[in-house]
Amino acid sequence: MRSPAISFLGGVREIGGNKILIEDGPDRILFDFGPSFSPRFEEYYVDYLRPRSTSPAKDLLEFGLVPRVEGLYAREALADADLAYLPPTVHGIFVSHAHADHAGYLDLVDPEIPVYVGAGTREMMSAIETSTAMRYGPHDYRIFRDRIPIRIGRLEVVPFPVDHSIPFAYGFVIRTSEGSIVYTGDFRHHGPRAHDTHEFFRAAAEERPRALLIEGTRAGPDARRNFSEDGVRAEVDRLLARRASLALACTYPRDIDRLVTLYRAARASDRSLLVSPRTAHLLATIAPRFASEEFPVPGTSEGPRVYARKKKRYFNWEKPFLDHAIDSEDVRKDGGRYLLALDLLHFPELIDLRPPHGVPFIHSMSEPFTEDDVDDRVMHNWLDHFGLSFHQLHASGHASGPELFDIVRSVGAETVYPIHTEHPEAFRAELPGVALAELGGRYPIDASRGR
Predict the structure, then answer these.
(1) What mean pLDDT is predicted for residues 139-165?
(2) How far apart are CA 48 and CA 231, in angstroms?
């Protein structure tokens, strides 16, 4: 019988796209299954040039953008692809969190394969499917509980909550017949749930793992300021105190920690946080999982409200949030009462809002990947046209390079595999026992000893 092994089907020398297959004898489980942020995708698909909905797996397989694995894909996804449909040979998929680069290709997967998720992640996925074009597909969803082992044949998986820029994120300890493997998912330890991250790595060290699969998004060159969530809050407070006029913010709609930060800062400056119906829908869906009365849900919490854009048609999920919504005319009349969370796609609202010159625009998202990032240039064209004052204030969802290296040392794994990074060699320059995995490579963990 084959010894336990790790196969890297994605997430190698790229940000996102994690697809980690772990097998022990006949038992095979996959960790995460989403698209990467690799430039390779944009070599073939960009803007409105996308894989065909009638044969998505075929079109992605053509360019090696998803792994050629038999017994993984749904019959409908393969259509007339040159990879034949086979009944499932993968016995479960574990989703670390609801970001698209970890879960966005689940719709391609055979619905007979169980998908294991945390309860909060499942609720977020449901809200995302309702309010966006994202589809995860019909699956046998199985809800796991924090730190409670799940047995799949010879493999045992223990999920641990971690701090990340989306709630309900997990890392995993995987126990095999030859020892333990630790897979971190995405994490940080400078956010509101830092304690969870610390507890996960303490438990990981106690396992004396054979292998550590660690995300390294910020390894290598990284000019970003290492803001904490409290640091973002302090800077937003300062900006809101400087002017009594309208203030604008742009953040990831699923970064719940940031929305809470903006909400609390708005309240402290006697403002209402304005969010889109889509954000309101997500907040309302997951609110029962947050005990604090300060969690922002329009209609049930004091302060947040819904900003309604003019549209020809509203979806059913939007309608419950429109009864007391406000529009551009309301904001223009009394902008000093509001902090408006405005997505880049909704920038045309600025034409109706006519914000005063010098209004702060708080960009509470990651800096662009490159200096010539198209979205970044377009955003600044709009800001310059309306004379808005740009402020970069973001607490990353990922640990910094030095923090990553300290974690590796504390866990003490025999072999370290950096993934979810464009610079895995940064780990080798700092640490012993680092193996640079190859895409598609299969690595028996009994061969890891003594590397």
Answers:
(1) 98
(2) 38
